[in-house]
């Protein structure tokens, strides 16, 4: 079918053996959940590594399943793409989180930037730019405060179409970050052509920083690459002070991870930050 996706169902091969019925049921649940908005948004701070000031928050979606409890995005985003509901889910996430930014503004909790993950399906959609534009207008959030996170593979898969979309988004004023940088296969030529702002160094390289000299070298190289292309760098999954110190010393601009804060609901985050 139209919604079965380029990648087929490969991701679900293992669960298929437990029964196609179970998968079908989860798909139906997900369709309903998107209609009823059974999702919860968590936010995770992104900080300046030098001063620890709050630079932004990343929105992370959870599915509050009535039977299975809180499900992580790794358990449903791919399925949402395959059954064709990711556009609706993505639009809801964007609108809710922009509303939340406006609420924080009114409450005096100033979050400079909102970072939202885009899925590959969304970036391939012709009306994405118009949709984002109208959400920003409706919620009164300045485009400059919205950052969209895209992965290398998303950019490379349908490079020309993706580039056109990214150019229009940039023209709108939103900024763009490359998520999970270093894990995909991006050509450096594309990095130069794209209107990017930030490289997000993947957590897998940050994990063994100062313990594995290969990872130290990779992270140094990404920071240097960012610098020479005029891009900011943000390290994901910072869990220890040693990692933060290394990153700061090497000139990485921002960090995100359990060392600073886990992801939390909007209320928890504001309460913790305002004390
Ligand atoms: P991501 O964009 O790479 O998000 C970072 C993930 O790392 C999050 O997992 C976050 O909770 C986790 N994390 C943050 N700091 C640390 C740390 O210090 N240590 C460790 N071990 N993990 C950390 P989460 O929330 O399960 O999200 C998984 C992925 O799902 C995200 O990866 C993102 O690609 C996707 N995702 C989440 N929300 C959305 C959404 O609204 N739309 C789309 N399209 N994708 C989403
Ligand atoms: Ca992300
Ligand atoms: Ca990431
Ligand atoms: Ca990831």
From TrEMBL:
Q: Where is the EAL domain?
A: 23-275
* Name of the protein: cyclic-guanylate-specific phosphodiesterase
């Amino acid at each position: 079918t139209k919604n079965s996706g380029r990648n087929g169902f490969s991701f679900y091969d293992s669960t298929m053996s437990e029964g196609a019925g179970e998968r079908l049921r989860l798909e139906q649940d997900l369709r309903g959940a998107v209609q009823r908005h059974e999702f919860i948004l968590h936010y995770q701070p992104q900080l300046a590594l030098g001063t620890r000031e709050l630079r932004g928050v990343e929105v992370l979606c959870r599915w509050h399943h009535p039977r299975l409890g809180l499900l992580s995005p790794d358990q449903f985003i791919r399925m949402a793409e395959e059954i064709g509901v990711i556009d609706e889910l993505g639009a809801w996430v964007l609108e809710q989180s922009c509303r939340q930014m406006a609420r924080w503004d009114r409450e005096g909790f100033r979050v400079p930037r909102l970072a939202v993950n885009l899925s590959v399906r969304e970036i391939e959609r012709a009306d994405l730019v118009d949709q984002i534009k109208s959400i920003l207008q409706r919620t009164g959030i300045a485009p400059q405060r919205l950052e969209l996170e895209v992965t290398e593979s998303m950019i490379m898969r349908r490079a020309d179409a993706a580039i056109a979309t990214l150019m229009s988004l940039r023209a709108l004023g939103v900024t763009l970050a490359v998520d999970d940088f270093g894990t995909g296969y991006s050509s450096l030529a594309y990095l130069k052509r794209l209107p990017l702002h930030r490289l997000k160094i993947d957590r897998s390289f940050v994990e063994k920083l100062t313990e594995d000299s290969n990872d130290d070298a990779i992270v140094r190289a990404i920071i240097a690459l960012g610098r020479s292309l005029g891009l900011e760098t943000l390290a994901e999954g910072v869990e220890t002070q040693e990692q933060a110190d290394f990153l700061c010393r090497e000139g990485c601009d921002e960090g995100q991870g359990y060392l600073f804060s886990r992801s939390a609901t909007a209320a928890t985050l504001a309460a913790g930050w305002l004390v």
